[in-house]
Amino acid sequence: MTYSVYILNSEKLDRFYIGFTSNLEKRLEFHLNAESHKFTSKAKDWEIYLKIECKSKEQALAIEKHIKKMKSKVYIQNLKKYSEMKIKLLDKYS
């Protein structure tokens, strides 16, 4: 089974959402149709900003936690801009 860390972006909220999944298409559909109690229900314009393919669930969880811990919009933008950052994350948590 393949796991991915994904980052969604909402222009309306000017926010990112970070998560991990084994089925990105299904998970994106879930976020777009989220109920009112979910964070992602605050907007309907979520788009995939970045996807990182991982070797295992443990690696995906560690990378998701790392990105969330950074609490930085600039860090997320740099992850997309500089592919070597993504490679370093995959190496660090392999």
From TrEMBL:
Any one Pfam family match given in the protein's UniProt record, by short name: GIY-YIG
Domain of life: Bacteria
InterPro entries, per the entry: GIY-YIG_endonuc, GIY-YIG_endonuc_sf, UPF0213_domain
Domain GIY-YIG as annotated: residue spans: 1-77
Family recorded in the similarity comment: Belongs to the UPF0213 family.
Protein name stated in the entry: GIY-YIG domain-containing protein
Originating organism: Psychroflexus lacisalsi
